[in-house]
Amino acid sequence: MRTPLVASSLLPLLAVIACQHGDRARTQGGEYGGTMVIAVIGDADALLPPITVNATSYEVDGLVFENLARPGATLDPIGDQGWTGQLADSWTWGRDSLTIGFHIDSAARWHDGVPVRSSDVKFTVELYKNPKVGSFVAPLLANIDSVSTPDSSIAVFWFKKRYPGQFYDAAYQMRILPRHVLAGADPAQLQSSPFARHPIGSGPYRFVNWVPRQTIELQADTSYHRGRPRLERLIWSIAPDPNASLVRVLSGDADFLEFVNPPDIPRVAKTPNVKLVAYPSMAYGYLLFNERDPNDQSRPNALFADRSLRRALTMAIDRRRVTRSVFDSLGSVAYGPYTRALPYFDSTVAELPYSPDSARHLLDALGWRAGPDGIRVKNGTPLRFSMLVPTSSAVRMQTAVLLQAMFQDVGVKADIETADMGTVRQRSEARQFQTVIEAMQSDGNPSSILQGWGVDAAKAKDGGNAGSYENPRFDALVDTAIAQFDAARAKSYYFRAHSLLNEDAPAIWLWEPSTVAAVQKRIHPVDMRADEWFANISQWYIPSAERMPRDQIRLAEAQR
Amino acid sequence: MLRLLLRRAGHGILIVWLVATATFFLLHLAPGDPIAASLDSPLTPPAVRAHYRHVYGLDQPLSVQYGHWLVMMTHGDFGFSFPHRRPVSAVIASALPNTLLLMGVALVLAFAAGIALGLIQARHRGRPLDWGLGLGSLFFYSMPDFWLALMLLFLFAFVWRVFPVTGMFDPVMYPYYGFWQRIGDRLWHLVLPASTLALLSAAAIARFQRAALLDVAGEDFVLTARAKGVSERRVLMHHVLRNALLPVITLFGLALPVLLGGSVFVEKVFSWPGMGLLTVEAIGTRDYPLLCAAVIIASVLVIAGSVIADALYAVVDPRVRLE
User: Fold this and answer.
1) Are A238 and A41 spatial neighbours (Cβ–Cβ below 8 Å)?
2) Rounded distance, CA B243 to CA B217, Å?
3) Residue A542 — φ and ψ, nearest 5°?
4) SS3 for A272?
5) ipTM surpassing 0.95, yes or no?
6) By the 8 A CB rule, do B27 and A447 touch?
């Protein structure tokens, strides 16, 4: 548990973090050049967007390739309000709203010089949807029927039905790929194709080099159709040990670390050349109850199928204290599977209060009476269960210890069961657990909530609803919300769905960590988006006066 | 001699097969698989996981998977690593030279320093220098490798900033260096990890070497040499040391598998992309083909190491004959 001393030591950081917006005024200077070294703990798997699953690949792909359009700061998934063009410079909706025609920017070029055409868009959609490719995005594109190309600059998306997320699915779920390079490739072998290790995109940065498990290098595309990026080179430097990655930033060997563990923040704050930058997070953590018997999933769980018991256990947990203890001032209490960074978040959503007395009364009423050792018993069965936690997550281990003590206070015995991450993931997928502490990254599309909590996902073998929570009313409310074209009405349905979820207590919502990055002070202005921290990196720059020897390599020298 | 080597090779193949088979089944019996470990988001559609399990045959009965794997092994095909999205042979080929470089340099340094320290201690037996060096080697011998690595990293890379923090080369400048600058950069990055490993090993070797030297120093032929008026330096270097190298040669043979396996912690702390780190990462991602390949290579080297140690024994000590 964190001491008050550490808490107070974090206070000056808030001032540091709060000052970051002041940099924005200077971005108009137009200084080009410099190299930014990004410290990461994992290598990329493949640089091919349809099959990319890890964070480093996603970041590199996001700068080498482009979407048709990008969302505004609110990440609103309904319609196209707030969206700006990326590969497309304009779009037109069909009269029946069953089509959207995207006009490809005529200045857009692949990095090998070939113009980007509408046929590339059509090819990309077909590739993502091809079952042989195995893209995890494919199921999200089920409502896109086809793409037609009336001419080389217009790609028309045809939808099976009219729905609010049409634009989101067409413009944001896919990164456009070059048909002229990939057309001959076997879709089943794409992941091991040369392209996956040496991609050609149309984004602001060109791929230069990838030394497996060491570095990935990109350089600015000076002819990028939306304007030349200011930083000339980006290098992902891979160091599997998180401490080593942090030391690299503190010593000046690297410029950027996306996430600083809360215990390391005071140390970073004391380093003169490094600043801490907080940005919105889409991560949240929760204790998930398994509502089916882990040993026989055709039967309900002897404990957690009981909604009242889940509610009592939820009320036994002081979530504010847990959050404060684990994250200090750099975390907030979670309100549900929907984080503050997303549209339709509402902090007035119904939630169960922290009330150990209410929890005790409810447990008494359910027949769980305190036994001689203080642990509640019903029909000879103690109120005891296990909490599955991955050993590699210090945050979740710390959370488990706090939860265990709080459960103990109301006469509930919770055993901490540790396993490596692969085992936790496999057991969660196979639903072989009593409870598990999960940490999730919420999706920008609020309709994806059904993948984690919907009835279909509960019934599907190894579906995303590992706790097997089922409430058709919840599904109906989300389905209704998804179908709304009016943002206010959609919000009201999401509000009701989230409230119902909280009333049913399929999980104890714990925390939303604030994400804090460590960045060399010479990098300006460092504005980051919750879904993609690198989304605005083309506008970041290093003033001439603050450049180091590694910034002096010019693009001409970098050509190899 | 040839018959013996052939017999040892036959035993070796049998041992490698047994070890590899045991590894295969133990790995598959453990919870999880590479698909669940890599596609670990609960939002990953089940159909996608099922697709990849089908593609890689993970939905087949274990006996069928074993049969496929065995056939691949006999063709020299280690399979495909899903987490790396590359053939296992390519993944190992990119990690193995890094480990050989690090461990090779570390071993040479360790043996050179360990033998030298042992000599100095034996020559100054019972004096303050012997006592001081003994204490120093005991200090490093009992030190956990990750702790020493972290301390060296903290002092030399963070506080004094003499050496680079991690990696095998400067991620920014290396591609733009000339040939000699690249060599220098590589060596510069090698100093801390190689020194860490060398310090740890040299301490053990020095203790072995000192004990062996003192054993031999009491032998009759050493007394005879001294009685004949041979200089003390010549006695030590030509008579005592040569005979006292035998136990150290055994250590060298046994070090071969260590050379490949690398030092997991040192590789992790210094982000050295070698075999040790690769194997540990493969355990986390349940990368069955990669782990099986790593175990096979390690077991081959253990066997090769013991054969080499026997052969070296015979070369150094004429009294020992392989027959």
Assistant:
1) yes
2) 10
3) -120, 115
4) coil
5) no
6) no
